[in-house]
Amino acid sequence: MEIERRPRTPREKYGEELRLRRMAAGLTQETLSERVVCSPTLISHFEAGRRLPKPDDAARIDQALGTDGFFLRWLEDLESKFADHFAVVAELEPHAVEIQQYSISLVPGLLQTEAYARAVFEAYSPNQRADLDERIVNRMSRVRILDDPLQPVLWTVLDEAVLRRPVGGRRVMAEQLRRIADLAETRRLRLHVLPFSAGAHSLMESMMTLMTFEDAAPIAYVEGFRSGHLMDDPSLVRACQSAYALALSEAATRQESLALIRAVAEEYDHG
């Protein structure tokens, strides 16, 4: 029986072509890495689609494989607007029919307002403002997948800490929470809050996103500081799905969650 696979991203196709051309040339990853002047591990990352080579590396790959600038030219079409660890996830989001996300400390990117996103990026890089506007535009471009009223189906579980942390100040938080509440009230978002009173729960160690596709296997993604891990191994994905279901069972109901978010928004409005 054929194994169901998730959609391949452009960078994964790039990596697969690199692997095929390397093997056709009779080179191992170690031999190619010596000619490119990098580590074999980096070649492995390139071929798996986890990383993209720098232009100088791509030029040396072309020289080593005799591909006449092929990988350097293709690279120009693959430069992502997003951080390396998140680029594959950003490419997969538009293909998902269902997204389930849990956030432990901040509003997920798909739900952020522009003002909230600006406050987040300013906190991440207080001394690097040159590309701030571009990063905000890129984040807001992801939000547009919610313009479709039906797909993807979006589940969001928020830790109560997300509501209580005043990112950007009171006005920004009130606007942000009302944005989430509005999406929930129109049923575009299936919203639940994990209150502090729930105590320990199955997702308390990190944020997590699950994605389901029409004709491909599901994936799971967890993220930390400047790092992320995409999982498509079926056993790992099932473990993540089980953890999400357990956390959801501890969360407040839709009505209770909506009421809490509206009440906290009012608190921000009135101090």
TrEMBL record:
Source organism of the structure: Streptomyces pactum
HTH cro/C1-type domain location: 18-70
Protein name per Swiss-Prot or TrEMBL: Helix-turn-helix transcriptional regulator
Domain of life per record: Bacteria
InterPro entries (alphabetical): Cro/C1-type_HTH, DUF5753, Lambda_DNA-bd_dom_sf
